[in-house]
Amino acid sequence: MPIIMCSKPSPIIFAILFLALLCNGASTVAGCIEGERNALVDFKRGLLDHTGRLSSWTGSDCCNWQGVACSNRTGHVVRLDLRNPHPLSIYTDDQPYNEWSMGGELRPSLLGLKKLRYLDLSMNNFGGRPIPEFIGSIRNLRYLDLSQAGLGGRVPRQIGNLSSLQYLDLNNCLFYMSSGRVPEFSIDDPLWISGLSSLQHLDMGCVKFGDTSSLVEYLNMLPHIVEVRLSRCEIQSIPLSLPHVNFTRLSTLDLSGNRIDSPTIPSWLFNVSSLVHLDLSDNSFRGSIPAEIGKLSSLEVLRLSNNSLQGVIPKEVGNICKLHTLGLSYMNISRSLPELGDVFSGCIKTRLEILELSSTGLTSYLPDWLGELTSLKTFYLDNNSLVGSLPESFGGLTSLQVLFLSYNKLNGTVPAEILGGLVELVYLDLSKNLLEGIISEAHLANLTKLSLLDLSSNRRLAVKFSPNWVPPFRLQLLDVSSCSLGKKFPSWIRNQANISWLLMANAGIEDAMPDWFWVSFVQVTWLNISKNAIYGSLPTNLSRNVRLLDLADNLFNGTIDPAIGESMPNLRILLLSGNKLYGDVPSSLCQLQIVEVIDLARNLFSGELPNCWKHNLTVLDLSSNNLSGGIPDTIGSLSSLKALHLSNNILSGEIPSSLQGCTGLAILDLSQNKFTGKVPTWIGESCPSLKILRLRSNMFAGRIPQNLSRLFGLHIVDLSHNNLSGTIPKSFGRFAAMKVKRANPEQVLQGSTSWYVESMEVVMKGKVLEYGDSNGILSLVTSLDLSGNNLYGTIPRELGSLRGLMSLNLSGNHLNCEIPKEVGSMQSLVSLDLSRNELSGAIPSTMAYLTFLSYLDLSSNNLSGRIPPGSQLQTFNESTYTGNPGLCGFPVKQICENDDNGTGTRNNNTSEEDGAGSQVWLSYLGTVLGGFVVGFWVLWGTLILKSNWKDAYLSYIDRQYDRFYVIAAITFNRFKNSYV
User: Fold this and answer.
1) CA gap 670, 654 in Å, rounded
2) Residue 234 region, left (φ>0) first, then alpha (ψ -120 to 50), else beta?
3) Which residues pair with 277 in a beta bridge?
4) Parallel, antiparallel, or unpaired for β 102-104 and 47-49?
5) Where does the record place the Leucine-rich repeat-containing N-terminal plant-type domain (predicted)?
6) H/E element holding 929?
7) Residue 452: which H helix or E strand, with range?
């Protein structure tokens, strides 16, 4: 029976009916709009999804698909979040990132999502594809994150059309630093940024800007901007002033890591009163820190590190009461650390949490006022000239989590009561100091949060724990290299299963490698236990995450795991030199996709080299083994190779022409093998970066290529002890790197890993000397050795232009005629060997100008005449001149005509003149010996503190002593004969 309404419905009933209809209508549109579902399906078709992150993209309701969100009211897709759930990190294994990254193409079907407001494609890898221009047509976008997505190329200016955009993140720094496999972002003209009128957050880290002259002005036009991050964008300048500062809401400004060259910090910054975070670090700001910086009363973070700032820290900094982070590292503070107490006595004293004063030139001791910074959590004081020990006031820093005091001159013991009270410590770095004594359980028993412990390079510091002690912490990094751990392998580290970095090099261990070691450290990525006396077999089950494996200079024996290329896919650096390993070089090494350094030198490997080399090798060192056969052609495919060491093996054949593909070679060492054929002329054409060429002790024949002199950087050439013939090329006088004496050391393998230290043997002064490259000493050595060949003809006068050459060895050839007087122009010569040739004539008097010469061998020639008197040449022993029967004068026994029977050096002058001459010689001797004593101890004192210089100069000092001894002998003979 129908219901008959006899009265008019009330307005409330109509409202209820309307809401019901509205809700019912909404439920009908909720779910997914067909056109947008089709757009998403087409977008998916363009993507590469290896792990099936989009496997839920099936069925009709796209609003329930992974990463998709729809409006509850309209049903339109408003959010698309495809961010990689395993972000890229330079500190952890990137395998999960690689596995979960999506790639492919970004199809314009996204334009079908008319109401899309949120788009996040970050942390993927799109293989260097450019950002598509159609992104600028998604007009409703408010949030756009394309950071670390493997995109590259020019950023489309169409993005400037997104007037509703509030958040824009194109930061590409992390991806580029970790992989370097894609092109970088670039912006030619940033004018379009001014069109983002709603923008609040902008991050374009590592986007390379072209024209930046008006960049700040464009940013100043954004009325709502709150956060600007433009780190490492190659910005070269910013204005010193602005006509009007429009940054009324700006709280974060990060311009770090650019190329900003400015005479001062711009004054307009001090008018941005809303600033909370200001980072100008890693630029070229000059001058001092202006006192006006104290006007930024809202500032919480101030980073000015690594600029050219100098002078005092204004005390006004101490009045910024909200400041909790202060970074002033790498500036020249012209005060000792105790004198900074007035800066840190202000209201920041109890607020400051992070204080960075690394590399600021601070001197003196650690003052007591540091203990008053009670809120301090992070403290960097490394790389200064601080002395003394930890003050008792440090015990009051109970909130301290990070303490870096490395690279100072701190001495004495480490008090257990101070260190043990810092219970919040997470990172502790006391490395590279002069600390001594013992670190025991009492020092670390309360540090339950400790994650990083670095005590390395304190040679008088011993780390001694009970074998049964179980530490309360779980370390991620342990570095006790160059400390004393005792002869037994430290068992207390067994439960440190979380360690990623384990460094125990040169720690005095003389023990077998325990079986538990390879099982316990399944997370290790960087392992260095080199320079001990550890013995045992190499592992077959080490962590797949290992990037550095350094077992060099131990007593390991056995073979390398044949499947090493499969078991360690992330290996970058393999250092196994100086052990007792044998067998074949496994071909699976070629499967290491990202390996950079392979060093298997000084072992017992035999057989032929595998012929499968590829990828990104920078250093390949297989020297001092028993390898045979020829050089594999595939080595020539290593275009990134900088150093190839194959010396001291029994390799044979000719140098393959395929090596022309190694265009980046800086070092080629094939010495002490059985190579034959000619020295290839292509070396002077295809290896423009070559700096060291060693082919000594082989069976090379033919002429020396003249075009070697085209190699601008070549400074060590050793072609000695071969069967080379012909004349010495006159073009050798054009070696550019040998013409000028170098003053500033630089590493020969620039840009290579710091874990591999290059070294090279150079025959100089009649000895084999080894020069390391850790401090760039190798780059200062210049040597030309053509000895032990069948060269004939004259010594080219053109060699006289090599004024930076330190060692010249032409001995054991068939060179004839006179020694050219131009040799006297080679002012840097320390060692000169012309022995065992057929040279004739007199010794040129110009050789007396070689004041640095400490080794000379002219023996076994046909030289004649007087040895130039009163000069450098008379300070050498008689053996220097033996085998030259025509030579006369001191120090040989042959007396020259018109000389008396005394010394063989006197003329028919009066005794008064000789007496005066003797007095001059005695005066000269006194000055020289006095200066030598003073100079010796000044230099020796320096060498005690800088041991890396010692090896390079020790032999030189010995030669100086011998020289002065000979001077004394000459003078004594002259003095004696003046009274005979």
Assistant:
1) 11
2) left
3) 252, 301
4) antiparallel
5) 35-71
6) helix 911-945
7) strand 452-454
Task: Find tokens 């006006």 and name the residue.
Answer: 292
pLDDT tens digit string along 723-780? 999 999 999 999 999 998 887 888 888 765 667 888 899 999 989 999 888 788 899 9
582: Cα within 13 Å, side-chain hemisphere: 5
Angle at 854 between CA 851 and CA 856, to 5 degrees: 105
Q: Spell out the long-range contacts of 954-963 with Cβ–Cβ below 8 A and sequence spacing 24 or more.
A: 955/765, 955/767, 955/769, 956/830, 956/854, 959/765, 959/854, 959/855, 960/854, 960/932, 961/932, 962/854, 963/854, 963/875
How far is C-alpha 610 from the geometric centre of its chain's CA atoms? Answer: 30
Which two three-digit tokens encode residue 925?
Answer: 């001797």
The whole-number pLDDT of residue 655 equals 96
CA 767 to chain centre: 32
Could you give the CA distance from residue 561 to residue 941 in angstroms, rounded to a whole number?
Answer: 47
HSE (CB half, 13 Å, CA atoms) of 491? 10
Average pLDDT of the residues of the chain: 86
630's tokens: 């020829």
The alpha carbon dihedral of 639, 640, 642, 645 has a sign of negative
Instruction: Answer whether the bond into residue 85 is a cis peptide, omega within 30°.
Output: no
Instruction: Provide the pLDDT confidence category of residue 705 given band limits of 50, 70 and 90.
Output: very high
| DSSP 8-state class, residue 653 | E
What are 160's two structure tokens?
């400037």
The gap between the terminal CA atoms of the chain, to the nearest Å, is 158
* Secondary element (H or E) of residue 61: none
Mean pLDDT for 794-815 is 96
Identify whether the C-beta of residue 75 lies closer than 8 Å to the C-beta of residue 32.
yes
Distance separating alpha carbons of residues 575 and 597, to the nearest angstrom: 8
pLDDT at 89: 66
Tell me the backbone φ, ψ of residue 599, rounded to 5 degrees. Answer: -125, 105
21-235 — its CATH code?
Answer: 3.80.10.10
* pTM higher than the cut 0.90: no
The half-sphere exposure of 958 on its side-chain side, counting CA atoms within 13 A, is: 8
Let me know the angle formed at the C-alpha of 281 by 276 and 285, rounded to the nearest 5 degrees. Answer: 110
pLDDT score, position 421: 92
Residues 6+ apart with CB under 8 A from 880: 856, 857, 858, 859, 891
Partner residues linked to 434 by β-bridges = 411
Comparing 954 with 89, which gets the higher pLDDT?
A: 89
DSSP state of 915: H
d(CA 528, CA 506): 10
Q: Where are the alpha helices (DSSP H) in 179-229?
A: 215-219
Share of the chain above pLDDT 90, in %: 72
658: helix, strand or coil? helix
| Position 651 pLDDT exceeds 80 | yes
Q: Which residues contact 743 (CB under 8 A, 6 or more apart)?
A: none
Q: Are strands 767-772 and 759-764 parallel, antiparallel or unpaired?
A: antiparallel
Residue found under tokens 């070629």: 590
User: Which tokens go with 417?
Assistant: 């009561």
Is the alpha carbon torsion for 862, 863, 865, 869 positive or negative?
negative
Give, in degrees to the nearest 5, the angle at Cα 450 between 444 and 452: 110
Question: What's the confidence (pLDDT) of residue 961?
Answer: 39
Both tokens of residue 68? 């998709």
φ, ψ of residue 158 in degrees (nearest 5):
-60, -20
Which pair of tokens denotes residue 7? 């009265």
CA 573-575-580 angle, 5° bins: 155
> Angle 911-945/947-977 helices, nearest 10 degrees?
170
Model pLDDT, residue 925: 40
Q: Which residues contact 170 (CB under 8 A, 6 or more apart)?
A: 131, 146, 147, 155, 185, 203, 204, 207
For 696-703, what is the mean pLDDT? Answer: 97
CB atoms within 10 A of CB 911: 12
Q: Cα angle vertex 950, ends 945, 951, to 5°? A: 155
